[in-house]
Amino acid sequence: MSTEKTSRFVRLRVELVVEVHDEDALTRAALGRIAADPEAPDTERAHAESAVTEDTAEALAYLVDPFDLVREVAGVELEQASWSSEQIDYDPDSPEWDLDEDDGEGDGEEAGIG
């Protein structure tokens, strides 16, 4: 494959489903991260504290950082990232949650673990 014909940019899509066993611990961790940010303005800090206290998914989103996923990967630099979280109904036995199923998007190869 010629380097001239390929883009240097790669879109990496990751979807995770996590089970929260201790909402209070998650909220405390998010509040601790907010408190430890010396550059956050007071209004932003108050908004973030309210969001993570009211919504477990927001607390998790506040703690998960896409930059951490690639920070130590040799030869790459994160150019852009976006992420969100939401509470869902999850049934691991449902075919809807089959991670090996092709979603039909893109022509690239997907790599899986397992």
Task: Please tell me about this protein's structure.
With 114 residues, the protein is an all-alpha fold. It has a domain at 21-97. Helix content is 34%, strand content 0%. It is built from four helices and no strands. The protein is flat.
In terms of topology, how is this protein built?
Layout: H1 23-35, H2 42-54, H3 56-63, H4 66-70
Helix pairs in contact: 1-2, 1-3, 2-3
Low-confidence stretches: 106-114
Content-based structural category:
mainly alpha
What is the helix/strand order? HHHH
Question: Shape from CA axes?
Answer: flat
Percent strand:
under 5%
Helix count from the secondary structure assignment: 4
- Give the overall pLDDT as a whole number: 84
**Largest sheet, strands/sense/barrel:** none
- Count of strand segments: 0
Task: Determine the N-to-C terminus distance.
Answer: 28 Å
Please compute the radius of gyration using only Cα atoms. 18 Å
Helix content: 25-40%
